Amino acid sequence: MIETVSCGGVVIHKGKLLVLYKDYKNRYVGWVLPKGTVEIGETHQVTALREVKEESGVDAQIVKYIGSSQYLFQGKEDTINKTVHWYLMKSNSFYTKPQREEYFLDAGYYKFYEAYHLLKFSDEKYILRKAYNAYLELRKVNNWFSKEERNNRR
Predict the structure, then answer these.
(1) Could you report the per-residue pLDDT of 81-98, keeping only the tens digit for each?
(2) Which residue from 24, 114, 128 is spatially nearest to 84, judged by alpha carbons?
(3) pTM of the predicted model, to two decimals?
(4) Helix (H, G, I), strand (E, B) or coil at 23
(5) What does the UniProt keyword field contain (predicted)?
(6) Do 1 and 78 touch, CB atoms closer than 8 A?
(7) Which of 38, 50, 114, 122 is most buried as measured by Cβ atoms within 10 A of its Cβ?
(8) How far is CA 145 from CA 15, 93, 94, 106, 122, in A?
């Protein structure tokens, strides 16, 4: 068995969540969260931010660590045991540009219930719910917005 580590983000802008649509040669088709493999010398946070930017074109900022998910899948020669570390992130715009080279055909921000039902994998649905609840808690105590953003909202 091969052990791998990836990192990704649940990105929120104005209460909506970023999801990506991937179609890999009609064998892997569905909506997913942005994530990817840790490169040598990278921290998990750097990997998560880089992968969000590469796969979606979104410049995001990490707000907090959400947790990890784990799953198995069959690689070319062996079973892969993948652990994914997830971060709650915020973005300052709805701009997205899906990475065609990695078979992402669409990307967009959706209301929670829409994003939840679009997602293909149950582990990503669980992380999305956990991240969205953290976002709601941060908003409730007025810690989601920066001081400047809070002043502009008055």
Answers:
(1) 899 999 999 999 999 999
(2) 128
(3) 0.90
(4) strand
(5) Hydrolase
(6) yes
(7) 38
(8) 12, 14, 16, 28, 29
